Amino acid sequence: MRWMRVLVAVLACGMAPAYADVRGEVALEGRLFTQSPLDDRQQEGNLSLSGEVEYYTTWDDGRQSFTFKPFGRLDQHDDERTHIDLREAVWIFHDDGFEFRAGVNKVFWGVTEVYHLVDIINQTDVLENPDGEQKLGQPMLKVSLERDWGTLDVFFMPLFRERRYPSVDGRPRTQPRIEHDLTEYENDREEYYPDVAVRWSRYLGDWDVGVAYFHGTGREPTLVPGIDDGELVLIPRYEIIHQASIDLQGAVGDWLWKFEALHRKGQGPSFSAFTGGFEYTFYGLWEGASDLGVLAEVMWDERGDEATTPFNRDLFLGLRWVANDVDGTEVLTGVVSDWNNGSRFFNLEASRRFGNDWKLGVQARLWSHVDAEDPTYSLRQDDYVEVKLTRYF
Questions:
Q1: What value does the mean pLDDT take over residues 83-94?
Q2: Quick one: which of 69, 124, 159, 298 has the fewest CB in 10 Å?
Q3: Is 323 within 8 Å of 346 (Cβ atoms)?
Q4: pLDDT at residue 16 is higher than 70
Q5: Buried (b) or exposed (e) across 195-208, using 16+ Cβ within 10 A?
Q6: Residue 161 phi/psi, 5° resolution?
């Protein structure tokens, strides 16, 4: 009967919307690199213009909705970063603890600040930002059940999306560069190998618990050396993986505890990895309105130096200051340090709105004492400051 109601809802899609809204943003971004590039084809500065529009409509007494959200960027130097992506184009039906989604959507799993270890549904958009926060839209069918025993999400993803990398002129990027056109797959069906995933989540007292399983094409490729027109490059190779994961977040008094762990098969020898830590918040700093959070997280990967991520033996220490003003002023800063080789990565992010329509954001990233064996060694001269001005409409 449930599917009959969904079918009826589909047939009713042509009815007039009860509510519709269009909103969007345009942003001008500038990056200034503080050191000369390792590759003389790269630049010391860069400008780009991006835009995103969201159309949202709902009908059937709010039980059905449709969201359409395209994104595009025009970059001064990097042809690959000049791109268009459909972030969302999803129809949603929900009723009485049941939800069905069909289309292109974004789903986030995870709780930690620095490294989103268990987040695997969407491909990372490293062209937008190397921090892994930005994601590409993922075609999917999703069914969710919300009951007393928790929420169960089941995913079917018929099409894999490849990770795209900066072009020859792009910066920051690896040395040697990653050549997307030579991408390889373990399975002959390549991007058409279907992915499946299931996740159960529930609040247990002060704790939010999530347990998940994923099978399909791994989002994080193994990079293997190759030759492109006589130039040494890195070739992305995508393997078929099985991944089981858990994520926990607990708010206990002024403490926020976070933990993510996984076990993966299929990407070389089986391995386990985890990341976790805490954020302690001092509320009403100096008897004012602002809050100050102290953050600490550990990142560990059983593969050690063979890991496909730089977060294999690392410690993060940071501060988050939130003004709690009408302009949403906040600052996040910290350092990630590899306790094996001493490599360090410093990060600062700050933002503030100006009225309802404008927002100014600043990012500064710096790699220091980078060991020659560390995965970030090729970024050692890519320190940069980014300023971004966004206009909302």
A1: 96
A2: 159
A3: no
A4: no
A5: bebebebbeeeeeb
A6: -110, 125
The CA distances from residue 93 to 14, 97, 139, 193, 370, in Å, are 14, 11, 17, 27, 50
Closest CA to 308 of 235, 221, 178: 221
Nearest alpha carbon to residue 312 among 304, 320, 323, 321: 304
Q: Closest Cα to residue 87, out of 73, 74, 100?
A: 73
**What single letter denotes the amino acid at residue 329?**
T
Q: How many Å apart are CA 330 and CA 293, to the nearest integer?
A: 11
Q: What is the per-residue DSSP string for 223-260? A: EEEEEETTEEEEEEEEPEEEEEEEEEEEEETTEEEEEE
The pair of structure tokens assigned to 320 is 């988050």
Q: Whose CA is closest to 140, among 167, 115, 103, 109?
A: 103
Token code pair at residue 362: 């600043």
H/E run at residue 9 = helix 2-11
**What is the pLDDT averaged over residues 8-33?**
78
Res 11 pLDDT > 50? no
Please classify residue 75 by burial: count the beta carbons closer than 10 Å to its beta carbon, then call 0-12 exposed, 13-18 middle and 19+ buried: buried
pLDDT at 3 over 80: no
